[in-house]
Amino acid sequence: MSELPANVTELFPETPAPDLSIVIPVYNEEAIIYAAVAGLTERLDNDFGFTYELILSENGSKDRTLDIARQLQNRHSQVRILHSDVPDYGLALKRGIEEARGAIVICDEIDLCDTDFYRRALAKIQEENYDMVVGSKAMEGAKDKRPPLRRFATSVINLMLKVGLGFQGTDTHGLKAFKRERLLPVARRCVVGRDLFASEFVIRAQRERYRLTEVPIELEELRAPSVKLTKRVPAVLKGIGKLIWVIRVRNR
Length: 252
Fold this sequence. Notes:
Blueprint: E1 20-26, H1 33-47, E2 52-59, H2 65-75, E3 79-84, H3 89-99, E4 104-107, H4 115-128, E5 132-136, E6 143-144, H5 148-165, E7 176-179, H6 180-189, H7 196-207, E8 212-216, E9 218-219, H8 229-249
Parallel strand pairs: 1-2, 1-4, 2-3, 5-8, 6-9
Antiparallel strand pairs: 4-7, 5-7
Helix pairs in contact: 1-2, 5-8
């Protein structure tokens, strides 16, 4: 495991806000949310030398996710809850980014909580002055332990993004860290929600020539996806079509 840079505080400008904001969209996660947040806050408190806030952006859950999230907020002073009645991963993520107060924002998943990615991403931002670091489950060195169908779907989507939008990386969805002040305007210009917001965010940042890089991650999900793949496909295809129209045709 890589070590956090000794002068990590230099990553952040002087501000009364937390050094780092961690944004995690949550939807129907009652089975894992309590243990995941408890474990993440323990690692952050014990192993990292910065202040942070953990934003749980709950969106439209039908189970006890929101109630448990509120319990966590009462238990942990760093936890903040955002709530929306609409189940939309992308809009939940976008709202979390807009509400974040830290100079650096990390977008994570409740079934990952990958603090090793935090270390490596912060080092990249500091030592090489990148604006955004994407955790790739598809690049060389990554270990994607998801079922074959899920890996195949990722490959197809990446191919469509490359052909349709000129995407030049290996992954857009999932873990990412970025300088909030520089990338917030890009997030606000994004026009799609659901699964494609994360992709649009990365693609727009790349097209606008912000400094991006990728690092390989190990991905092993703790539970099946909260939304089935068959239900996600139509929305993803529609979203890609909208992005091609807006970005490539209308140049917006």
